[in-house]
Amino acid sequence: MQHYWFGDVDVEGCRIASRNPEDLARRVASLHTDMDSFEPIDWRTAQACGLVGDRGEYLRMLREVCTISARQKIAASYQGKDVELLQMVRMLDELDDVINLLHERAVEWYQVSTPSFSRKYRSLPARKMIGVIRKNSGGGLRRVADEIDRLAGLRSGLMREVSDRADEVLPNCSALIGGLVAARLASRAGGLEALAKMPGSTIQVLGSERALFSHLRSGSPSPKHGIIFQHRRVHNAPKEVRGRVARVLAGKLGIAARIDYYRGAADPEFIAGAQARIDEAGMME
């Protein structure tokens, strides 16, 4: 017996599943077809079953079923517990880009408007540099500096919210690398489900796509870490063992992501064991 979107067909005939497009859309979502034994059909089979009268009616019904099915999938995708977190991370990344660009332009403006400007100011942290501009400037430049400072405060608040939200959505990943880095990993992966299905080797270099493509094109050294380098366990590790720490951490993150996706709750026993293994990987031999 062959199962199609509109019904079931075998040597004895055809049985229509339903004439309701919504019911047929739910049927489409539940079908699991073995392509080795699948036999393609044309619209005449549906006509012979009595579902439609001609090809035009077949195409109209098929289009309606596909449209309903697509809407159902979109609605389901927005019900995921990580959907809001991904949007928060992307907004945070946009804020970073805007703040960095405005800071760069403000410094260049200050440089041309202040003859006493010295290159030493460029080594100041961004927040202090904006403070210098606010103190010594007026007019439009002062207002721009005020706005940059306000955006920086907004960014700090959003970072805390992202971290808190990640602790809820990614409790095990957050316990290993912190909420902010865990959220960035999930965002780059495309969601918690995608992250949970990734092998540790992919998680290890997630976020280092440019270096990876450069390695593939020109033979430059392959990247040993991506986003996970932001975590202290990796960037504070001695250079000789940094790659090993990144590899072990990525492997444990792969397991943590699966626990987060399928269980949705912290596993203290796993977290303790994973942290001990990561600390062991960071020890010099």
From TrEMBL:
Domain Nop stretches: 169-285
InterPro entries (UniProt xref): Nop56/Nop58, Nop_C, Nop_dom, Nop_dom_sf
Gene3D superfamilies reported for this sequence: 1.10.287.4070, Nop domain
Pfam families per record: Nop
Superkingdom assignment: Archaea
Name this protein carries in UniProt: NOP58 family protein
Origin species: Methanoculleus frigidifontis
